[in-house]
Structures are given as C-alpha cells and as structure tokens.
Amino acid sequence: MVRKTYSTIGRTTRRKDGVSKVTGREIFASDVVLPQMLHARVLRSPYPHARVVSIATAEAEAMGAVCLTPSDCPAWLYNERQVSIPEKTYRDRTVLPETARHVGEGIAAVAAKTEALAEQALGQLAVTYEPLPSVFDPWEAMAPEAPRLYKDIFLGDVVLPIERNIACFREMREGEVEQGFRESDVVVEQEFRTGRVYHHQMETKGVVCRPEPDGGISVWPTAQSIHNVRQLLGRIFNIPLSKINVHRIPIGGSFGSSIQMNTCIAICAALALKAGRPVRLVLTREEDLYDHCKYPSLIRLKFGVKKDGAIVAGEMTTVVDIGAHNIQAYPLLGCMAGWFVSLYRMPHMHFQGTAVYTNKAPACAMQGYGNPQVSFAVESLIDVIAERLNMDPIDVRLKNYVGLGETFWGQGPTVRSVIRSCGVEEMLQKGKDLIGWESRNRPEARSGRFRRGIGVGRSFHTSGTGAPMSGEVIDYSTALVKFNEDGSVDCLTPLMCHGGGTLEALTKIVSEETGVPLSKVEISPADTRSTGYDVCTHATRGVYCGGASARRAAQQARGILLQFASRILEVNPEALKIRPDEDLGQGVIYLEGAKGKSITVGEVAKTAQIKSWGTAIAVVSHRQVNCPPCFVTNFIEVEVDTETGRIRPVRAVAAVDAGTVINPDLAAGQLEGGLCRGIGLALLEDTDYDPRSGALTCGGNITDCKIFTALEMPLTEDVATFFAETEEPSGPFGAKGVGEAANNCTAGAVANAVANALGLRFTDAPMLPEKVLARWTDYLREKRGA
Amino acid sequence: MKKTEVCLTVNGVTHHLGLSPNALLLNVLRDELGLTGAKYGCGTGQCGLCTVLVNGRAVLSCLTLAVAVDGADIVTVEGLSRPDGSLDPIQEAFLDHGAIQCGYCTPAMVITAKDLLNRNAHPTEPEIREQIEGTLCRCTGYLSIVRAIKSCGDRAGAPAPRPSPMKKSR
After folding, report:
1. Which CATH superfamily does the domain covering B4-79 fall into?
2. Domain residue spans in chain B?
C-alpha cells in the first residue's frame, strides 16, 4: 500500500518533556512541596485477616501528630477504579477499614511536621486486633468451610451477598462446544499458570493534598486519571466536584498500577481535611508491594482442531485469585474471554471464569489486563497443535488468526467491532526472516549443556474500550485546542503520559492537523477544573481515542482560524490551506496557485485579537466507534543452561501493527520495554506469600522480587523491532495503539522457544531455574528409563 | 538529636549544614537543598534511583550518611549541565536515543553513565551493562539506554543510527 506522507506524524523528534526529565527538573508527586505541608505515614496490618478492635491515638497526638482512624472516615464503600458503569462497579472498601483483609492493608494514619516525626508517632499508636482465620489459596477459599472475607458488598447500589468468597463468575458460549470437540480430529488440553507479578513501577505511589478555604481540596496524585480521582474524592468526602482540583503531574511508570485512584490518595485527603493543612504521603517500596499486583492466572485450555490445522472449538476455564478487594475482576473476566476468542477463529467456544477473594494484596490491571496470561496459554497450545499435526507453528497461526473484515470482541462481549487494518501476516513473514526461522532445528537435534531454541508468539491489544454501542465500560476523551496570538498552539487534555509518548503523539497530531510546526505546539498543564472528562489513560487508548479528540478539536479550531483568515485575505475559507514553515516557526495560510494570498497563522490570530473577532479555540468530547486491535508478534531465541536450569533470552524480534506510527523511536522503545517485562513474566516474576504469616516472602525487598536488569537482556545488536505497514481507517491519521500490546505475546514466545530448545514444555510461569532443572532432570530420567 | 555541622559542595556550591548524625544524603539533597533529581525508589540500596556522584564516583545516596561525606564534592543530575545551560553529552545522548520514558530512573541512569564515562571514555556494551546493572528501569528494557551510553563513547557529537538488522545466531 502507498503510505500517506505527513509533515510531522512519523518523524523522530526529541520528546518535549525530555529536557526536564534528563536534567532532573521533572516534578513527581514525591517532589511536590507546599507551605505548611505535613508528612503522613500509614499504619498497616501485620495480620492477613483481623478485626481492628481499638486504636489508641493519645500518645501520638501528644507528639503533635494528627491521627486518622476508621472512625474519622466516611463509611461509604468505594471501588478505587471508576472505569466501569456504576451498576457494574463492585464496592467493597472504605478509606480505612474496620477489618484488615491482607497484610499491609492500611488501618490508621498520622501526619506530622516531618516524615521522621510521623514515623515515630506511628509507633505510638496502640492497636488491639482480633485476628481472624485467613485463606490464601483460591480453591481453599471456595470451600464451604473456608473463612469468609466478606458477608456482602455492593454492586452498584444493590447489596451483593458473597458466597464461598466468589467475587464474581462469568460464563460465555458461542456455538455448541461439545459438538465442536466431537467434530475435531485432534483435541489438545493443558493447564497454564502465571505469577502474581508486581507492577514494579519505579515511582512508589504518592500524593499531596491541600484543603482549600472554600471547603474544597487540591490534589497532586500519582494517577492515570485525574477525573476519576476527582469523582471519587467528591463522592467519598461529599465535596462538590467544582471545589476539587486534581492536577496532572508526571507519573514514574504505571503499567496499570494507577488506573484506579490509589488508596493512599483517599487516606491523604482525609488527613489533610482533618489537619486543615497540606499533607504529603509517599509509599515506601514495601508498602507499594502490598498495594497492588497483576492478576495471576490459572487457565485450563482446550482446543479441538481438524487435520488441516483449522480450529473447530475452544474452551477456557479460569480461576483468578484477586486478593482482598474486587477492583475490576468482572471486566477482567470479560476481557479474558475476549482475548481468548479474538486471537483465533473458533466456531464453537465456551468460557468460564471465576474470581475469588483471598487474604492477599489486591490484584488489579497490569499491562495487558489478562492478555499476557491468556496469550501465554493460547500461544503455547497453538504450538502443541502444530507439533501434534506435524505442521509449522506459523502455518497454524496463519490458518486461524482473526483478521481483516472479521468481527472481534477483545474487550469483552459488549465491545464488538470490525477489524479494518491488519498486519498479522506481514509481521509473521518478516519476523521469520529476521530471526532465521528456516534454520530452526528440532529439539532432538540438540546436545550439550547449553541448548538454544526459537519460539514465536503473537497477540494483540485493543485500542481503547469503546465500540459503536456504549457497553459496561466508560470510554471517551475531551481535548481543547487553541491558536495563540503569536501563531503557537496550546492543546489541553487530561490524558496522561506514562512515558510511552502519548502526549508527544498528541502534539504531533495537533501540529499535523493545524499546519503549525511541532516546535510551536505544546501540551498545557492540566487539572480537573479546567478540562473536560477523560476516562483514563489505560487500555492502550491514549493515542487512538485521546489523540482523536485532540485532532477533532484542532480541526474545529482550524476552521475558526480560517474564517478569520478569509476576512483578511478575502478568500473563501474552504479554499485555504495551512502548511508548516519551520524556518519561520509559523503555519502559513495560503490559497493554492495564488501568489500573494498568504498570511501566517500568527498574523491572523493577532489580527483577530486586535480587532476583537475572538480566539480560534475549540473543545471536543470524542467517543470512539471502533476498537481496533493493535497486533503484535515476537520471535525469541533462548539459551537454556541444562546444568543450572537458567534460561537466557539471546535474540528477539518484536513487531507491532500500530497503524500509522506517530513516534517511531518511542514506539520502538515501547516494544523493547514490553519485551523485557514479558520475558520477566515468563522467566522471573512472582510475589510469593508465606501461608503462616500471610506476608510476602520477599519482605518488601525488590532484590527478592526481581525484575530484569540490563545484564539479563539480549545485546542491543541482537534485538530488532519493526512496524507493520498498515493504516487504521478509524484512527487519527491512521494510528492505533501500542502500549499494552507490546508485552502481550512475549511469555508465549518464550515458552515456545524453551520447548524448542529442550523438547520439554513449561506451562507454569515463571520458569525459574530450580523448576527448569527439576523438570529437566525428571525428563532425562524418564527418557533413559524408556 | 544533636546536630553536627557538615560541609557539602553540591554542584559547585558549598553548603554548611547543621544535620542530625543519622541524616541520609538523599534526604539532605532533596529536603534541605531542594534538589529532587535524585529519587527515592526503595531506600535500601536495591534500585539505584538515588545515585549521585561523590568525589566523582557513583554512590547510593539513600545508604550514605551525610556526615560520612563531610567535605565531599557532590554532583547531582541538576549539576551535569554546563553553566550556560547546555546539556552534558550524556544528556544529549539520552534525548537522541529515545532513552527516556517515564523519566523516573533517568537522573540516576545519567549519573551512573557519567561515572563510567569519566573513567572509561569508550566503554564496550558489556561494560555498560555491568555499570547500569544496579540501576533499575521498568519502562525501556534498557536497550535504548545502553545505545545512548555507547554513542557517547563512539562519537563526539553525532547520534548513532538505530541498530542494523540483527545478526544470525551465534
């Protein structure tokens, strides 16, 4: 296809926030200092399940500390995540609980002049607990005699009884799955597990809250959605939204960890309101480890296929251990079904998902929202099918993938849309060449201590959660664009940049649409009082939906500007065009073929101001009408040390079909980062609990809850990234997302590479050396015995 | 706790500070001097985000007592750029190689790289990886950071091109 040429879109440029980041001048939540500011610390439960009988605060207060206990807090139950519609929102927690349901749950807080003083005051709080029986395994939790975490909670405004600790259950069917299996030539079935991975964003969550004289509050939080923080604080503390101002500040990595309003925000707001002074609360790394984690998975997967490799039926059963709070298990199960049915066509399908409460830190969305877990299982089993049918794994994928023109529902059954751009085949073919797929041997051909293998994995993510019909998830963005009197442009949006370049992409979209050079387009500081609603920068929606809202606002503002220009040039505004002139640092408005009929954007905006015609400005709220998949493909080569069980990634190819790529270097960076996190999911990451104490076995230490360091990645020359040449008709300038997709297929590719190296398949991630070594030793013993 | 007088030269400015003997260098830089470039990431020397240069060498400021570096010359990320405001070549390299995502580890990565480049003007990729092993980044997968640091050794100015298509398995 012939790609459109753009002046700004697709150009590699230095990111606009780069200088402040590389000079240390970027201000994160923990860097915010306000006059009279107090520092807060939170007292956390040492018990996995305990009733808080009493908290004595007198001694801490005598030290000058402001103390907060459950009795100081509103009793209203909330869910920190505000993305689902109210009637699908499960509410089970308060600002401070009267019953702690996991080790590390905050039960009281103090604020004092310094953090050290607050820490000392915390030590003076005298708490009486009544320990309760606890449960850590989801299967045990579902037993009738198991300790119950909740008697009932709220679903929307309705009381929802909780039986056998089951937070929610979803079942979906299409076709007749049993008939499908009967019609199949081969049926494969396996169980897969992935770990309880910690987000490990480098910035621990933090917040500064300042009570305002009018009864309102100003907030500087670690957050992915300033508007959801505002809405929740308004509801919890009964403050009119017009008096709550939540400021967007940079976030030190998120990976989903701040989709919800972090619970420390509600605690800090309550303290600030009580103290009548600004309060800062920054979590320690240990506290952050107890705050959230990725949803672990336990998936039973079954495929029925014909001899030619065509999938006839698929069945997935999953049990998800959500920990102590139900943040978003209901949509998670819908999405897991969606990821499952949207990867490969299956005329008959059946999905069953159960989310179960246990006394562990609550799980929440983490990059991919169930997709890396599902893709790990599906991509592994696709390779098993290839093995059984003696087919090339790539051919099985090409035969079955859901592609152009087909309907898919990645975000669950209510978010259905049609695929209008698809680079699946291109990525498989090109990736195959880059990794050297044709030279890939069978495992029997290998010998010696170090064994290498190559694996492929593919997946996708949706660009946002919106579809033609509004479903159970809220999804729209608001943006404002205005021309300044010197010809520069401001774009105001509550979107976040998590580091991947979302706001950078918006400047390019606005530059492209307005014709004003990129050097003169800036993103304005944003807060909730001056911006329209945006649901959240999550679900790989920033560029696709947020960018589309900015483009539409730019279109409208441009129209107003051209009206002004037409008065000056005496030309029909519809005949006027704008092109960027980098040397002038201006957009130039001109009439094609008519010399003299041109004027800079700055002159028009200035004239409009002097003559009091007004400002060329527009605000747009935009709801997406499609939910296009951004497809990804990884080819990975691993080396297994059969004497230690250590698996090392040695080469990788990562590709994405993101439609038109707006920031090439930043998109490639997202692929590389996703690769690293995906390999971590496959080989390394988990959070274990000691069932006796209910505490994390890592003890809050990140060296005992490791992520990859620079040493463990393949060498730079051994990693290649590329983009499929596609264009999404519904996206801004043809763009889709990258974000979450980047890590969705990696664990599956790693598992397939390991199977290719050893002839032995691991279905339970992480594939830690001790596990690999034990299985390999057994495998050799069995082989010798046979 | 009784205060001790401590003299620190930070980014070329000498400060005489009355500090508690248990004051950590990270907290002194951030809270007393308002230099928030060095970050808290774990407080236990496990993530490297608090790294600063003490007498030219990379040091974890969250594990360093301020009194222990009395009289030292300290450089934080804020002190890397030249007096005229122009950036250090390593900062330029991070900008040119897309080596910055969320930016939370960036100050520490830049300082850690500077420490290496001060001693070794042309580090190899294994040397770079070893140097930054103790500084964690969750966004980038480290590759762009390694490329940025490598480019500083490879050149005196021009950005290196993105990597060529990969070599065959070795």
Report:
1. Beta-grasp domain (3.10.20.30)
2. 4-79, 89-154
Provide the pLDDT for residue B166. Answer: 59
Contact A457, A747 (CB under 8 A): yes
Stretches where chain A sits below pLDDT 70 are 1-3
The complex's ipTM?
Answer: 0.97
Query: What are the tokens at A590?
Result: 């001109």
Residues in A touching B94 (Cβ below 8 Å): 18, 22
pLDDT above 70: percentage of residues in chain A: 99
Tokens standing for residue A324: 């102590």
Equal CATH topology for A32-132+202-253+258-289 and A293-468+626-785: no
Q: Does B40 touch chain A (CB under 8 A)?
A: yes
CA distance A633 to A648: 19
Give how far B123 is from chain A: nearest CA, Å.
14
3-state SS, A424-459, equals HHHHHHHHHHHHCHHHCCCHHHCCCCEEEEEEEEEE
What 8-state DSSP symbol labels residue A543? I
Contact B167 A717 (CB under 8 A): yes
By CA distance, what is B126's nearest residue in A? A711
Q: DSSP per residue over A394-409, as a string?
A: HHHHHHHB--TT-EE-
- Domain ranges for chain A: 18-25+476-622, 32-132+202-253+258-289, 293-468+626-785
CATH of A293-468+626-785 among 3.40.50.2300, 3.40.1550.10, 3.30.365.10, 3.20.20.140:
3.30.365.10
Q: In what order do the strands lie in the sheet with A617-622?
A: A521-523, A489-492, A477-483, A617-622
* pLDDT band with cut points at 50, 70 and 90 for residue B94: very high
Instruction: Decide if B128 touches A, using CB distance below 8 A.
Output: yes
CATH no. of B89-154:
1.10.150.120
Q: In 3D, which of A334, A348, A337 has the Cα closest to residue A306? A: A348
Other C-beta atoms lying within 10 Å of the C-beta of residue A534: 28
pLDDT tens string A681-728: 999 999 999 999 999 999 999 989 889 999 999 999 999 999 999 999
**pLDDT at B161 (0 to 100):** 47
Contact A654, A743 (CB under 8 A): no
Distance of CA A166 to the CA centre of its chain: 25
Question: Which residues in chain A have their CB less than 8 angstroms from residue B104's CB?
Answer: 28, 201-203, 252-253
Cβ of B35 within 8 Å of Cβ of A499? The answer is no
Q: What is the topology classification, in CATH, of domain A18-25+476-622?
A: Aldehyde Oxidoreductase; domain 4 (3.30.365)
Domain topology for A32-132+202-253+258-289: Aldehyde Oxidoreductase; domain 3 (3.90.1170)
Please name which of A435, A483, A162, A464 lies closest in space to residue A322, comparing C-alpha atoms.
A162
The pLDDT of residue B164 is above 60: no
Contact B49 A202 (CB under 8 A): yes
